[in-house]
Amino acid sequence: MRSNRLHKRTTLIAILTLLITLSGLVICAKGQDEGINNGQLIVTQTKNGVELVCVQPQDRIWLISARKVTPCAGELSELDILSLKGTTWECRSLEDLKAEHVSDPHRESLVFVHGNRYNLEWCKSRGLQFYSRVFANCPDRPPVRLILFSWKSETEKKIRPIQDYRIKSRRSLELSCIFAKVMDYLDERKLLICGYSLGAQIVIKGISEQSPASRPVHNNLITLIAPAFDPYYWSTQLESFNRSGLAGPTKVFVNQNDKVICASELFAKKVGRDCLSTSEKIATGLMDQKLIHVFDVTAEAPGKHDLNSYLESDTIRCELRESLSKLSADHPLDVLPIQNATAEGQVEDDVKKVAADILHTENKAGLADKQVAKPGNTNLK
Q: Closest by alpha carbon to 110, among 101, 120, 119?
C-alpha cells in the first residue's frame, strides 16, 4: 500500500511538473511573439510538488554554501560559491561575488539565511520562492542581488525533534564566525540581511562578532522572520545586538500562533534560562525601541513554522521591499526604478544583453527542446 501511494505521488508530481513546464513554455513563446522578455523560468520543489519561479533578467541569484566549513574555525576558502545562470548553478568565487557587489551600483544585495531542516536543494528552491514571493510583479523596486547563505541543517537521523533543535541551535552559533567573516569581506557596501528561524541566530551572533577596527562601519539593514534562539545565548545577546554599531534598524516579524517558536520558548524556560520573548523584551524596555521594530503578523499568516506561510503576510513582503528601496536611497548613486531605467545606461544594457542571450539560446535549441530545471535534475544541484 505504501509503495502504491508513493508511486501515485511520484506520478502526480511528474504530471504537475510537465504541466507547469508546458505552461511556462507557452508564456515564454507569447513573450517572444510580443517582443517581451519574461525572465528565466525555473521549476522549484515544494512540500507538495513543484512551483514555477521566474527570475527577472535585471536580478542576480548567488549562493554561499558553508556546509563544509569547520565549526568555530571556518575560513573563507572553505566556502562554495555558486551563481544561477539560466537554469544552471555555476561554480564561482567569493572574489567574483565581491567584485559584482562592490562595482555594480544598479543592484542592491540582499543576504538570506535559512532556518532548520534545509538541505542544499531545499535551500535553492526555498530561496527562489522567497525571491518570487517578495519581488515578483514589483516594477517600482530597484534590481536585487539575492545572496543565499546555506548552512548544514538537514534533519538529524534517529533522534527526537527537540534533540534535533538543540544540535542545530548550537551549530548555528558555531557557524556565525564564518558568517561574520563573509559580512566583513562584503562590507565595502551596505547590505540588507534577512534571517529566518535559526538563521536569525546566525545573523545576530555573526554581526555581533564583526569588528569595526581598521574598516568603515556600515549599518546594514536587518530583517528577522520567526526568529528562534538558543536558550543559553539569546537572553543577553539581543539586548546588546544593535548597540554594537554594526547594524542599522532591525525589523522582527513574529506570529503568536507559531507552535515551533512557542515550543522553543517553553524549552528555554524548562532549562531555567532567562527567556523573555522578543515581545516581552520590548515591553520591559530591555531593547532600544528606536532600533528594533517588532511586527506581529499573526492575523496575516498561518500558524505554521514555514517560510512560505510567513511570506503570505503583506506586511513582511512590503517591509522587505521598503528596506531594499531604503538601501538604494542610502547609496551615493540613486538607482532608478525598473520601469524608469530604460532610458539610461547600464541597467538597460544589462537587461538587453541577458534578453539577447536567452533569445539566442532558445532560437538555437528550439522551443520544443527548451530546458527547464526539474526536481532532481542536475541543474538544481
A: 101
6-10, 241-245, 264-268: least confident range: 241-245
Task: Kindly state the cell numbers that stand for 361.
Answer: 539560446
The strands making up 220-225's β-sheet, listed across from edge to edge, are 88-92, 80-85, 60-65, 144-150, 108-113, 192-196, 220-225, 247-254, 292-296
**How far apart are the C-alpha atoms of 249 and 244, rounded to whole Å?**
12
- pLDDT of 322-363, one tens digit each? 999 999 887 654 433 443 333 334 434 444 454 445 444 444
159 pLDDT above the threshold of 90: no
- C-alpha distances in angstroms, 254 versus 162, 224, 348? 21, 9, 39
CA dihedral (43, 111, 236, 169) in degrees, to 10, reads: 40
**According to the 3-state scheme, what is the secondary structure of the chain?**
CHHHHHHHHHHHHHHHHHHHHHHHHHHHHHHHHCCCCCCEEEEEEECCEEEEEEECCCCEEEEEECCCCCCCCCCHHHCEEEEEECCEEEEECHHHHHHHHHHCCCCEEEEEECCCCCCHHHHHHHHHHHHHHHHCCCCCCCCEEEEEEECCCCCCCCCCHHHHHHHHHHHHHHCHHHHHHHHHHCCCCCCEEEEECHHHHHHHHHHHCCCCCCCCCCCEEEEEECCCCCCCCHHHHHHHHHHHCCEEEEEEEECCCCHHHHHHHHHHHHCCCCCCCHHHHHHCCCCCCCCEEEEECCCCCCCCCCHHHHCCCHHHHHHHHHHHHHHHHHCCCCCCCHHHHHHCCHHHHHHHHHHHHHHHHHHHHCHHHCCCCCCCCHHHC
